[in-house]
Each structure stands twice: as C-alpha cells, then as structure tokens.
Amino acid sequence: MVISLVIAFSLGGFLAYALWKQRKEAKQLLEKHEKEKAAAPATQPLQLQAYERLVLLCERISIPNLISRVSQPHFTAKEMQLLLVDNIKQEFEYNSSQQIYVSSVAWEAVRNLRDQSMLIINQVANILPPDAKASDLNKQLLEVIMNQKEAALHTIVLNALNFEAKKLMQ
After folding, report:
1. What is the crossing angle of helices 77-95 and 2-61, to 10°?
2. Distances, alpha carbon 25 to alpha carbons 2, 18, 38, 145, in Å
3. Greatest CA separation for the chain
4. Contact, 168 vs 48, CB < 8 A?
C-alpha cells in the first residue's frame, strides 16, 4: 500500500512538473512570437515598398516597355543593343538594395528576368546583319516576345511579386 502511494505521488509529481515545464515553454514561445509580430509592422511598409519598386523595375526592363521608352530610330542595331542592355543594368543596379526586404525566391526571379532579357537582346542583335538599324532590332525583339508560347517572363515575375506582396499584407 505504501509503495503504491509513493509511486502515485511520484507519478503525480512528475506529471505536474512536465505540465509546468510545457506551459513555461509555450509561454516563452508565445512571448517570442508576440515580439516578432510587434517588430513585423515596423518592417512591413519597407517590404511592401520593396515589392512595389521591384514591380516597377520589372515593368521598366520588360523588352516591349524598354523599347518604347528608350528607342532611338537613328541608332544602328548595335548601338541600340548596347543602349537596351545598359538600361537594364542601370535599372537593376539602382534597385539592387531591395533584395534585403524581399524573399530570396522573389529576388532570384527578378535577377533571372534581368539575365533573360539581356540574353534575348544580345541573341537577336547577333543574328542581324552588321548594317541593321535600331528599328530592325526593335522589330525582331518584339516579334520574339510576341511569339512566345507561354506568358512572357516579365509577366510571370510580376505575378510572383504580386503574390508575395499580397501574402505579406494578410
């Protein structure tokens, strides 16, 4: 009888200790979560602003918008190629600091858009004859973009950025 009481009290004490410890850990996790949640509103506007700037960047370096914005009809195709590529590089460098506020997936998508846009411009420019005009390059670039079977890469990246920004606002 005494042994069963000792066992019962020991088991009861152990369960009480385990319950106390579990509640303490839960309280610590809750406090940590509350601190993180309190810090989040301070950074959320910066994160949303970064997504806005990256959306604008993607719009500005999309090939159709880029051509309409910087086109120089009197340039040669080679000069136009350099102007387009330099413009993409400048836009990207200007916004590169935004990477600290967005997810690595979002930033990688923007980098891929930059790289793919420059690759398309360089590949199309390289197949044109040496005496080609800027208008020839622009026309070929727009045809390449229009003939893409799937959505243009800049549209895919824009959708991803919009999705992440909306997720952040929830």
Report:
1. 150
2. 34, 11, 20, 56
3. 106
4. yes
Q: If DSSP codes are grouped into helix, strand and coil, which group holds residue 76?
A: strand
- 18-59 residue pLDDT tens: 667 777 777 777 777 666 555 556 788 999 999 999 999 999
C-alpha separations of 91 from 48, 72, 114, 151, 164 in Å: 19, 18, 9, 23, 21
Q: Kindly write down the DSSP assignment for every residue of 121-162, as one continuous string.
A: HHHHHHHS-TT-BHHHHHHHHHHHHHT-SS--HHHHHHHHHH
Kindly report the backbone phi and psi dihedral angles of residue 107, in degrees, each rounded to the nearest multiple of 5, phi listed first. -65, -40
3-state helix, strand, coil in the chain (%, to 5): 85, 0, 15
* Spatial contact of 162 and 55, defined as CB atoms under 8 Å apart: yes
The answer, as to whether pTM is greater than 0.85, is no
Question: How many helices and strands (H and E) does the chain possess?
Answer: 6, 0
